[in-house]
Amino acid sequence: MNTTTRFFRFSWSFLGLVLLLAGCREEEKAIQLPLEFALTWDGTSFAIGDQGLDDQGRPAQLERLECYLSAFALHDVDQGWLDLDTVIRVNFEDNRPVAVLEWTGTGDMQVDGLRMGLGVPEDRNVDVDPAQYADPNHPLGFAGSAGMHWGWAAGYIFSVFDGRLLTDPTTLFSYHAGNDKVYRTAEWSWDEPLVFEAGGSISPMVLSLDAYRCLHGQDDVIDPEVDPQSHTGNNLELARRWVNLYAEAWTLTP
After folding, report:
1. Helix, strand and coil percent figures for the chain, each rounded to 5
2. For 215-231, what is each residue's pLDDT tens digit?
3. DSSP character at residue 27
4. pTM score, whole prediction
5. Minimal CA–CA distance to 210: which of 43, 61, 50, 98?
6. How many CA atoms lie within 13 A of 222 on its CB side?
7. What tens digit of pLDDT does each residue of 104-125 get?
8. Rounded CA separation 105/152 (Å)
9. For 2-88, where are the alpha helices, taking DSSP H only?
10. Rounded Cα gap, residues 86 and 179, in angstroms
11. Rounded to an integer, what distance in angstroms lies between the CA atom of residue 208 and that of residue 60?
12. CB neighbourhood size of 92 (10 A)
């Protein structure tokens, strides 16, 4: 057998192996996980503009609640944590705000955990021009971040919680957190894994935020009459207290 014949036989064998492997490779399909967001006050359904009683029995009215959520990750029983490069902006003034996490996969997943960042990741926060996003409506884009961006040097506002105590006189309160030092994460796990089928339909998960618990925790309580305002830079200690309560106020229903 001459060298040329051997070369062609090898080439066809190699090509056949490549085609065989390609045929055995599973097709990647889109996987979408809907997220629904709910607002409560001390465990009871709530809405922006509603009034609830604080721990002293004073009526409090919530007037604005918005936040950035990012750095989502799902925990697969076999693969561990799978990062999803996603940033979303949630405005609780919307009627039942919804977002969708999307990725591609080749087979079923056994999911038993979810993690998310409360704020904007450090590498996307300060010294960033929102106009750099091709889509201005991107959550971090020029239009998408309107009202949630302080400027290049200060970066994005991670969370906004505004309202008033309906006392005499009325006490306005405002907690705006937006600094890498106040970035937090929330994480949940559950015993029985959920099966996510590639290309299949997945039931929504519900992320609830308890506005009462944003002020009242087991280890700390913020009294708006005593500590009415933080825009982070003017009161970093209060901003840290706020985000620690806020991080504990989230619950997940898989």
Report:
1. 15, 45, 40
2. 999 999 999 999 999 99
3. P
4. 0.88
5. 43
6. 26
7. 876 789 999 999 999 999 999 9
8. 37
9. 3-24
10. 19
11. 19
12. 22
